[in-house]
Specification:
Elements: H1 21-45, E1 48-50, E2 56-59, H2 63-69, H3 74-104, H4 110-117, H5 119-122, H6 125-135, H7 142-149, H8 164-192, H9 196-204, H10 209-220, H11 222-237, H12 241-246, H13 258-267, H14 272-297
Antiparallel strand pairs: 1-2
Helix pairs in contact: 2-14, 3-8, 3-11, 8-11, 11-14, 13-14
Amino acid sequence: MSKERPPAGPSKRRLPDLGPLPWIGPALLLIFFVVLWPTFEMLRTSVLDISISGISRGLTGLTNYENLFGNPELPSIMLRTLAWVGIVVVLTILISLALAALLNAAFPGRRFVRWALIVPWAASVVMTATIWRWMLDTFYGIINRILFDLGLIPTFINEWLGIPDVAIIWLMFVALFVSLPFTTYVFLAGLQSIPQDIYEAAKVDGARGWQAYRSITLPLLRPALLVASIINMINVYNSFPIIWAMTEGGPGSQTDTTTTFMYKLAFRFQDIGQAAAMSVVNFTVILLFVLLYLRVVDWRRA
């Protein structure tokens, strides 16, 4: 004898399972409006004919790119930018590794030194660059006074920032000065996460000093090295305040990088389309930098 099934009640409509979307939705919207949409507008503007008043006069194809790559100043600016990024990033990494090892050791006043190191990074980059420009002034700059009093120069140097080769060295020094604190703290955090038991086991096996640093410390610092290198490459390549506050890319364009050159195209020469094309080139170069670096270091092993 078969049992009768009870009549089915009104079916309850279940909400669709959205998974993690409600949690990551705000972040996705932020990425869209802050990153993806400006990137699309940058690409679109680079193929438009924009008047000085900012009015679009229609598509111009690749004319902006042709004008940009036909600019005789661009090759030297690109080479200078690559040298600027390479030298500053490499020196930042090397010096930060040494500073992190120093700050990881126990010595009197270590806490004060750690606090003092963060000041250049916490301060405004524009303020830091402006102070260094004043310090390099011919008449009232402290750099001339110190070097003269120490007998290192026979007379005050006129226009430290007016000589292109000397100016670019000072710009790199200030960029290094600003980049060291963040990178040092990234490496310091990495060093403090390494268990001391590993070093004690290495001592038993006879690994000490440089051998232990090369075989243990550096491999375990790979994640910190990866993060610090990529962030520094992006920051240094896009570094605008230091160069603009100290030299404005001068004299002429002999201390310009692609970032300051892009700014000049937009606001001095009023060529919005060519500036947008330069920004596309900058974006592409940074992307290639990061991809190449990840390929070289094999980021999956980090």
